Request: fold
Amino acid sequence: MPQSMRALVAGKVGEPTDVLRLESRPVPTPKAGQALIRVKATPIHASDLHVLRGRYGFSPKFPTVGGHMECVGRIEALGPDTEGPKIGERVVAVAVPAVPAVPGPHVAGTWQEYLVADTRRLLPIPDHLSDSSACQLAVNPLTALLLVTRELDVQPGEWLLQTAAGSTVGRLVIQLSRHLGIRTINVVRRRDAVEEIKALGGDEVICTEDEDLLQRVAEIAGPAGARKAIDCVAGHVGAQVSQALAPGGELVVYGALSTHRQADPAALTIPLQARSVIYETKAVRGFWLNRWFGTASPEDALRALSEVRSLVADEVLSIPQGQPFPLERFTEAISLAETPAHGTKPLFVFEDGRDKDDR
Ligand SMILES: NC(=O)c1ccc[n+]([C@@H]2O[C@H](COP(=O)([O-])OP(=O)(O)OC[C@H]3O[C@@H](n4cnc5c(N)ncnc54)[C@H](OP(=O)(O)O)[C@@H]3O)[C@@H](O)[C@H]2O)c1
Reply:
């Protein structure tokens, strides 16, 4: 076992490409109940970049290793008196950082070669699932599953209205909805995306470049509007989605893509119509996977993750193949993560002679 490893570390809050440095750090030692994971692949999510810019739902203590939430790797060692997972087993480790008012599991950043994780939070991965799929299993597919089932309990035949339908979460929501018999109304911002979303199985697509969102939802779901919606754009689009809700309808906001790179506090809002919220009793609430992991029991979290693993293994959900980057090329990887219409997710991958075929 090497004594030191490479890690991508941010010294302070700032633009990720300005504040991140490749550093050498000691390989951590697992305590009782923990496993040492040799990381094989870990994605770059928009939320990872928000954390470094100081714009997310928590702020780590700097310097901090970048990346939070998910990675796939092999168990290299177990802490003292620790049983359960086997050395060499390939697992997904969920790394939720310390968030005020949200209890554990707290794990350091994922953009490093080794990390320690709670053994109760490790999900074994079958050989036929690639590293690319496995390292993206926890955040987006789990969010899609929880939003559609537990948060909104959307029933077969019901309409589900969603924004940024071309996002990874949006595509997974479409696939899951088809599987469950739910009909989707998909909002996209680019004309180019319309046919792609239809081909994926989206029942209806509204392109905000060409169409009036409210008018189209009324035409599709009826003049009252849609009863259930999810939004990850917020701002003006989020407000329009709230207006497109039927009386008594529910909107779950889980992202705020339109507020990215905004510094003006007024741009970080979702303007709601008070009369509509009161008299039509529309409900708008948030969803945050970090909070969900913090409050779900380890057993429940693993149960939900196993359900996602089965949906992916059974090809109900297909996770787009990520684009691999070594840690050294982080500037390029981060730039890809923020390029419009980038399609594929950048992943940091770590060479491991034994496992070249897993990718
Ligand atoms: N709350 C949670 O726990 C949770 C969990 C997972 C994800 N999320 C959030 O879910 C969102 C999607 O994540 P992802 O990883 O699926 O994203 P992604 O794959 O990187 O895709 C981003 C998508 O958003 C679209 N988009 C970007 N800015 C937009 C804007 N201003 N208006 C409309 N559309 C815009 C892009 O459209 P183009 O194709 O036109 O570029 C693209 O389709 C993010 O906000 C993420 O933080 C939240």
